[in-house]
Amino acid sequence: MERLDLMAKMKQENVARIIDFLQENKNRQGEVSLTDVMHLAEVMSGSMFDFLSTVQPAVTEELTAIARQITRMKEEISQLRANDMTTSKIPDAGRELDAIVEATENATNTIMETAEEIMGADTSDPVAYQELVSNKMINIFEACTFQDITGQRISKVVETLRFIDERVSSFISQLRIPEDLEAAMEESADERRKRELILHGPQHTGEGVSQDDIDALLGDAQSDIDKLFD
Amino acid sequence: MALDLQMPVLVVDDYKTMIRIIRNLLKQLGFEDIDDAADGTEALEKMKQRRYGLVISDWNMEPMTGYELLKQVRSDSGLSKTPFIMVTAESKTENVIAAKKAGVNNYIVKPFNAQTLKGKIEAVFSD
Fold first, then answer.
1. Residue (of B37, B32, B56, B68) closest to B108 by Cα position
2. Residue A171 is part of which domain span?
3. In sequence order, what are the residues at sequence separation of 6 or more whose Cβ sits closer than 8 angstroms to the Cβ of residue B24?
4. Closest approach of chain B CAs to the CA of A199, in angstroms?
5. The total number of structural domains that make up chain A
6. Which range, A23-27, A182-186, B105-109, has the best average confidence (pLDDT)?
7. Residues A76 and A172 sit within 8 Å (Cβ to Cβ)
8. Strand, coil or helix: what is A161?
9. B89: nearest CB among A202, A210, A217
10. What band does A178 get if pLDDT is binned at 50, 70 and 90?
11. CA of A208, closest CA in chain B: separation in Å?
12. DSSP 3-state helix, strand, coil percentages of chain B (rounded to 5)?
């Protein structure tokens, strides 16, 4: 407010000087010399100098603040290590997940093949059958070792997710984006399909309904099911 | 409708291991004629070519889900009476109610055991 008052006062002073100059030259009936023009220029530039000297510190202060903010944002962006994420961490996490899928699939196949061999084995010779079952059980135990390796791989993926979460959270915090400023997400085709076809995927323990609950729901009369919508 | 172990059963799942598990469980229960499909579209084509005594289907498949398959089956006069059991990880009340409304005969939530599968199949054919 003080700054505005000062600027207004300065403007008045400058305008007064220009008016005085014009008043002095009024009686010359349009005969204006080069000296007059230069004097007018001097008065005008003086008034501009006054204006700029008043405004410049404020502008400089604002520009410095913006420059500081830009520098800080650049630091935050570099902290994000976006290149590291896209070229290394995320692809690595993808490879770990692929390896997990492959390991569990191989283990499942081994266990199922072994179980199928046991189920289809000849039981007429109890001694031979017992030996076969014992050997096949060892195969099943061996196949179950996948759990240790997949556990370690999952830990690496979790670590990557935590890395991304920490950096993105810090970045968002630095941006100081108000919660109500977040843009509304437009529903994608995949999201619409999931909503329309009721695709929620597996639920965590305690979140979905149990088999007993389902049996109760299916056993109930339709009117009872309809009550759930009320 | 009586339970006939000779009837052809169609198992629909996009996960080969699950098909293998259900196939083995059905064999243990005495079923011999077991066919499979990887999604609703393939299942529907097979159902139009052959009369199955029972369909056991997953829910979450692409391009056609088990839920869409169920609705298609129930809206087709030639297939509408086919017993249909949903075997799925979709365990929200909303899913069960939607399946019930669409005409499912029974609903099994994954993971399940042989006893549950046996019990639900028997329940479908004892109604």
1. B56
2. 81-187
3. A112, A115, A116, A119
4. 7
5. 2
6. B105-109
7. no
8. helix
9. A202
10. confident
11. 5
12. 45, 15, 40
CB-count exposure of residue B60 (10 Å: 0-12, 13-18, 19+): buried
Contacts of B90 (CB under 8 A, 6+ apart): A198, A199, A200, A201, A202, B59, B60, B109
* ipTM, interface predicted TM-score of the complex: 0.78
Q: Is B119 exposed, middle or buried (0-12, 13-18, 19+ CB in 10 A)?
A: middle
Host domain of residue B108: 37-87+102-112
Examine residue B49 and state whether it is found in any structural domain, yes or no. yes
Q: How far is CA B21 from CA A67, A174, B35, B42, in A?
A: 64, 52, 13, 20
pLDDT of A147 above 70: yes
The total of structural domains in chain B comes to 1
Please list every residue in chain B whose beta carbon sits closer than 8 Å to the beta carbon of residue A112: 17, 20-21, 24
Q: Mind telling me how many Å the CA of A71 is from chain B's nearest CA?
A: 48
**CB within 8 Å: B107 and A218:** yes
Residue B78 lies in a domain: yes
